[in-house]
Amino acid sequence: MAPVPISPIKVGHINDVQELRKAKSMVIPQRFVRDMAERPTLARVPKSSSYNIPVIDFSKLLKGSKDEFHSEISKLSTSCEEWGFFQVINHGIDLGLLESIEKVAMDFFMLPLEEKQKYPMAPGTVQGYGQAFVFSEDQKLDWCNMFALGIEPHFIRNPKLWPTKPANFSEILEEYSRETRELCQKLLKFIATSLGLNQDTFEEMFGVAVQAARMNYYPPCPRPDLVLGLSPHSDGSALTVLQQGKGNSVGLQILKDNTWVPVQPIPNALVINIGDTIEVLTNGQYKSVEHRAVTDKEKDRLSIVTFYAPSYEIELGPMPELVNENNPCKYRRYNHGEYSKQYVSNKLQGKKTLDFAKIQTNNSS
Description:
Blueprint: H1 17-22, E1 55-57, H2 58-63, H3 66-83, E2 85-89, H4 95-109, H5 113-116, E3 128-130, E4 145-152, H6 169-194, H7 201-206, E5 210-218, E6 230-233, E7 239-244, E8 252-256, E9 259-262, E10 270-274, H8 276-281, E11 291-293, E12 301-309, E13 315-316, E14 334-335, H9 336-344
Parallel strand pairs: 1-2
Antiparallel strand pairs: 2-10, 3-4, 4-5, 5-12, 6-11, 7-10, 7-12, 8-9, 8-11, 13-14
Helix pairs in contact: 3-6, 4-6
């Protein structure tokens, strides 16, 4: 069966996974069927504590005793070095707000396709409704519908893409984005502290930080062994905040020691991951990690993602304090806007985008 052509401007019925689901067909269109090497092995990972991603108690960083603070900072450092991921509990964001953002996101995805198509994702952009990172007609598609918006600074917003339905969508997203922005700012202070740097290092360096939100909806899939919900990738951000919908199936997986490890949702926790930007700034000490999403045969899944990154005007490179004989400079200096452009104009392919910043050496593979 020949691949079905797609224009990223408008997701038609044939490439919209919710519409495919409604058709109740057990046949997965070729456009979604992964090559053998890419298919998810749905075997269970051993239930061992070594496969549990670290959990950070944010309240201990904010108002814990001296010992609790140092213990949590140490745990944060290990999380960033060895995992690139951690879950945050007691993060301070109102739980009612977490429920509200989930509700309006789900209400949006449940709108008729014609309504959602009023907010199309144009090619080469990552705002609007559709499939991001699609650049060729034979490229495999993810079993996922996305809706993404630029939040801060205001000039990156496209007002035409902010939906009028559900009626309170914009108001709730604004409030949610303010809260997650504050969380990212605080987290970066503690991450700087864990590196032995001044706590305001990142804030002073980033300028007016860029923030975007993306909502991902993964309908049930009749053949989860053939598809991916989201292709393996690392994030181009400094930090990413992920809210996993209540009652979700386990869909998020991270690559740890060449094993895809599922991230078990903790009620009311937020999943944080280090983006490529922090890997570059820390000269590889803290790592962005490949992650992907898999689908479920029975359950749907919703996630709400916040990306937090430096201003596009900022020039970035490894911080001198973190470059030495034992850890020579691994990345060149570059303009963050150029890197962002590179990131959104390529398909998701593991950590390939980071090659843009790597210093190539003769013995590098």
